[in-house]
Amino acid sequence: EETDCLSEEDLGKEEGDRKPGFIQKVTALLTGMKMIFEAILTSAGKVVATLLLGLAGIILPSVTSAVYFFTFLGLCSWWACHRPITIVTFSSLCVMMAIFSAGHLAALYLYQLPYFQDLVPPDDIYARLLGMVALIKTNSTETWKLQIHSGLSWPVFLNPLLLLVLYYSLVMLLQQWALSPKVMHGSKCRMDKTDHKCSILSLGCICLQVWSITHNSWLTFVLLIWSCIIWMVRDRRRYAMCSSPFLAIYGNILESIFLGTGVISISMWIFYAFTFWLLLRQHMIKRHMEEKQETLTEVTVGICIALITEREIPHNPLLEIFGSLIKGMLVKYWIYFCAAMFFIVSFNGKVVVYKILYIMLFLLCVALYQVHYEWWRRILKYFWLTVVSYSMVVLIAVYAYQFKTISGFLLLTLGLSEEGLKDLGLEQYETVELFAKILLPSTFLLACILQLHYFSEDFLKITDLSNIPIKHECTSGRYVNRPAHWLEANELHGENQTTSDKTENTTVTFLFLVGEPNKWSLVIDKLASLLLQLLENFHKTQVLAWRVLELHILKIVSTWVIYITLQEVSLMNYPFFVLWAFALPYPKLRPHASKICTVWSCVMVICKMMYQLKFVRPHNYSSNCMQVSILEHSGPDSLLQKSVLYVAPVDPADWCGGLRKCGDNNHLTILALMVIEVTVHHHQLFYRTQNQLTPPVTGIIFDTITREHLDDGLLSCIKYFINYSFYKFGLEVCLIMAVNVIKQRMDFYALLHGCWLIYLLQRRRRKAVAEVWPRYCSFLASVMTFQYLLCIGLPPAFCKDYLWRTSRWTIHSNLIKWLYLPDFAKKPDASFLLYDFLLLLFASLQWQVFKDENKACVRIEAGDNVEISRELDPAVLSQYSPVPNFIHCRSYLDMAKVIVFGYHFWFVLCLIFITGTTRINIFCLGYLMACFYFMLFGSSLLLKPVKTILRLWDYLIAYTALVIVMKNLLAIGACAYLDKLLRNHCWLIQTFGMFCTIPGYDLALPEDEKCELPENEAGIVWDAISFTFLLVQRRVFMSYYFLYVVADLKAAKILASRYMHWMLQV
């Protein structure tokens, strides 16, 4: 019962307890806010009062709010002049502002009454001047209802609340000062301590530029000019300090003039002006200290020393290391950020003249870096100075053109066209768009200024290849196993060493001092050891990556340059193609090719950018060949209707340099590749000189692996072949690449490659092939350059078609394609030349291998490629064999050797059998006959001398090459005259398996023809696979390892014969 009564009582009180509980929560919240506000006023009362005066002055500009605003400007300016504000003065000012704000609030409140609104309407100019805004609107018929005027903005509602907060804050502040005078002195000291010695020069100059950009006018244009002047002078700090009074006064005047521009705008302006006040205060403090340093009191001297002079920071080696690392990274890599900004500024948006000048400056620097490194270092500082000056001119010109007087003077007085001015980059924008357009050049200007004034000198020191610091001792893995409580790390002399003169020849040492060893010290020891191991592994990976890049940079650069020129066939790209086609086989031309390509790519980039300008109109100079009648050409070839001569007007710039409107600028990629190439060489030179290393004799990655380590184990074998795989098998790779070219092209020039292939195979011996290899490389380079000329063709602007299109005896388009002749209806496929180039690349590398084979130092490390004697007898193998016996399989490497040298022969025969049975034609019969012969006599054949085996095997390789060449020759009929063969010679198609496997040919096949085409049986894929493994097996036959297999087979045969003899006797 008691529980029930209590429950009823609680239920009865629930409704009454809800409201007091809510009131208590609100009261507690307000009490907490009051305590926080009082604490803020106690610690920074003057600052809060000053900020509230500024907010009250800008929230709703008027004559009354101007009192708050000018009071705020006066206080800030007085503080910036480093003048003390006495307690009596600031208290009196607070009393006056409190009285004025109270009167202002009372006037706003009274103005909400209908009488005063009728006396002075809200739209009256006096009401607007005095800041009297009517919030409440009353109706004479319904006086009990309160309504709010429509169309009021948020500052109108916030203004009374802000005035109330200002009044309350001033009263609270005065009350605190009256109760506790010490608080006033403490507040003064705290306000004085807000000063600091941090350099705000950069912030001030940036604010000058941003202020002028965000508010476009003649008055702010002065700020832009002055910021540019400060950035350019040598002693920027002194001039900025001297000009700080004028900047502060000028900023106050601008704020007073543009007070009514809006809350957001004037707030930004106050922020900009605050940097001027800080700069002025710093200047006044410095001058005050210089004038009265001897007469200051002890207390004032103590405060100024704490605020002005640099406080000695306790020596912290760890911070010094991190600071040195960060500055070193900025010194090394900030120039890359500037280079990226060059590209962004130059290619962002449409192309204009001032962007072309930007890229011309950049290309000049890059070209000089490639052509002459020392000259580039000499002019680098002047280059950045030129870029900064030019960027300022661009910024000022674009900004000044926004004024109607300037634009009108250029358009009307000078008579310049608006389109021409747009090509120059002068165009009028809206405020937001102007800020977006100028922000990027301003950011780029700031980046270049930082590079010029802060990083340039140190960068020149670390890039001086004539004064490289020598690293006498490598300490990368020196402390891996040492405990952390006495761990000592040395900052190595290197690329980051000369980041400052202070640390140029010093060694930074830091000690982790702990007490007696405990579990935490052991953890630190382990973490330090792991960290050092990680750093050491990262360093090794970095060195390996640079070495791999050094080895393959030539292949990457040449392949990419050729690929770009093939994607954009033109006359101006022909120098790139010719240079790299002949630079590969002739190494002496490579440095000249890189330099010429760098300069020529700069010319191409500028030409392509200038072609994008609006004054370049291709239709004004394009040739119109459509007046030539198509009927004048004999032959019903439908492809003639697609000729570029008769489809549209012909732009000669496209044929000359691949110049197109809105085209890609791929030559920047070529330029970047050239820069990467020379950077890799400079880096490796710096690294080897610094570590006192000599360049490797050959292009290897693992310098500790030689021919002696080949048989040590599987891992050593893999490393050896990573180093010398092309040295050992480069000739076979080149022959396989020649077959690949034939397979991809199947045209007239593929037939020439096939003839060379047969000729090289006919030489048989390696020395004989090496004798004709220079002529082969010259042939490849010459044929490539000639084919590129065919791809360029005659200028279409001449409106003259080729002879095979206009003569009485016309040639079919498919035959023109097979002969690789130029044609306006269907251009030769330039992608074929990429396969030719890869063949030339491998052939050039093999030429170098032939040269290295004659060097004793190379033969010692890589082994020789001398063919074994073909008269060797495996019976006396142990007397002269330079390789160990692997037959007994003592390791995984021996097992791999048994598989390759013992069973690869039978695998190749199975592959030959598959090649002969997957297709049905006359050529497959030869494969089957060869396969059956070797399978029948294979066991006995392997026991014969190497000379006999190679003679039969070379016959099979020659037959495979002959089949590949014959199929290429038969491609004339399969691709050019397949329709005629289908009608009259179906047996020929079936016998030789003729079908065109190369895309791009127009095959007009009759629909009612009953002759079945061997689509799945054509091509030389299986022939190429067989050719590859036949070459591999030939190398197996020529190896000393294979003689152990032969010896083992002979031993097994002798044992078998003895066993049979014993069985017969039994």
Automatic annotation (TrEMBL):
Q: Which residues form the Piezo TM25-28 domain?
A: 874-1060
Which keywords, in A-to-Z order, does the entry hold? Membrane, Transmembrane, Transmembrane helix
Q: Which Pfam families does the annotation name?
A: Piezo_TM1-24, Piezo_TM25-28
Where the record annotates domain Piezo TM1-24, the positions are 23-192, 206-254, 264-461
Membrane spanning residue stretches: 65-81, 88-111, 161-179, 200-233, 253-280, 330-347, 353-371, 383-401, 724-742, 776-798, 895-914, 920-943, 955-978
State the GO CC annotations. Answer: membrane
Looking at the record's lineage, which domain of life comes first?
Eukaryota
Cite the GO molecular-function annotations of the record: mechanosensitive monoatomic ion channel activity
Among PANTHER family, the record links this protein to:
PIEZO-TYPE MECHANOSENSITIVE ION CHANNEL COMPONENT 2 ISOFORM X1, PIEZO-TYPE MECHANOSENSITIVE ION CHANNEL HOMOLOG
The identity of this protein, by name, is Piezo-type mechanosensitive ion channel component
* Species of the source: Gopherus evgoodei (Goodes thornscrub tortoise)
